[in-house]
Amino acid sequence: MNGADALIETLLANDVDACFANPGTSEMQFVAALDGQPKMRPVLCLFEGVATGAADGFGRMADRPACTLLHLGPGYGNGLANLHNARRAYTPLINVVGDHATYHRQYDAPLNSDIPTIVGPNSLWVKSADRADDVAALTAEAVAASYGPPGGPVSLILPADSAWTETTAGAVKAKAPERPAPSGEAIEAAARAVRAAKKPVLLIGGQACRAEAMVQAARLSAHGVRVLADTFVARQGRGAGLFQPGRMQYFGEAALADLDGTDLMLLAGTTQPVAFFAYPDRPSLLVPEGCELMTLAARSEDAAAGLRALADALGAPASGPVQPLKRPEGAPTGPMTPQAAGVSIARHLPEGAIICDDSVTSGGGVASQTGTAAPHEVLALTGGAIGQAIPLSIGAAVACPERKVLSLNGDGAAMYTVQGLWTIARENLDVTVVVFANHAYRILGIELGRTGAGAAGPSAAKLLDLGDPKIDWVSMAKALGLPAVRCETAESFETVFASAMRQTGPMFIEAAIG
Fold this sequence. Notes:
By secondary structure, the protein is of the alpha/beta class. It has 21 helices and 18 strands. It has 3 domains: 3-164, Thiamin diphosphate (ThDP)-binding fold, Pyr/PP domains (Rossmann fold); 184-313, TPP-binding domain (Rossmann fold), CATH 3.40.50.1220; 338-512, Rossmann fold (3-Layer(aba) Sandwich), CATH 3.40.50.
């Protein structure tokens, strides 16, 4: 057994059985060791940003980490944006970053870099296994660290000689940490504050948006506490039979207008709300003046236990409001719009589906229609780094092969990680990819005006336009192995989407919306 064998055996001993990889020379011992470990599923990704986003999607749905296999510092760097999103989603995720042999580092070969510094900002834990005998123990340590709480990406650096050197140190079982419940004092203080408040709001995020916690949040809603979720949540149920909280508005002035009069804001699984960006003469903090801010359950604590304890302390009803099942009766007609797509999605989305949403300005048209659709879950763009939905859908489909996965993408966002279409085809994943093609970075056009920069002139417009030349999405998707259709009307989208939901396997739909 060598160090690479010890690493994979330790991963498998800790239920890490999916590896999203873009390897290079330094990782060949790991690649070779996979042949002796059939329980580990290797998934090749043609770009590291696909690998890291896929590991995020797997971890969100499986509640346990996947690993990535990345080629030295530049390979990690290519995957950084979706690791930023994973860090903001608090997803357990283990990056195995190959490195030069320990004795080769001193010669500063072309791919040499300061890997610990590169990986540090987006890693909860970083260590280099500089001896083969250390690999198993450090791998177990990495697994435990990835769970946090609240969890996130970690990075184990694997020098080539540690991978190929023989070792007698076998698999090590990690002990995942447990989330502590909020203190009794915190529950009592929150209950007193709610009783005294005239217009209390509960803001939830992270673990507080998972199924068990949402049942308790619904009880508080029935008691008269307004419940809002963070604007972008890592994983949240939506649809019939589920409690649907409000949503913190994206634009700061809209959020503050919505919160006007709020005199108490309780936080569970999240922190104080802030504007996504700074704007001239607009506040950064989205807490009304005079509103008391209080933490019920920190991100690292058991939010479900905290919400249950608060609901019990307040004497809240045993259950709260849930959404009815109410699909749109008629099929949409007319031009292809996000709202029309939303109607079709609401009509045909199967129960238990997983939506990976990076549709930017088109997403609201879908969300507004699917609140009473069949129950499903939504994985959102937690860190704001676009190019996430295609990779997320890969990981979600690997973690949950029995569930239909729907990837919703803006066309600008999809181009960041378009290589993921090839992996969807290669792995024959049950993923339907929808790209809303408006041939523009429309969100940037909105933000240009909001920042006070003025209207876009000829030069500025060149940085917002994607239509010259127009991207031929159908040809691209077919070239990468997917069956693909362009829909220019609501009627055609209705037909194609309904068919995709009845079938199993990959499908690509270009929704040509303008």
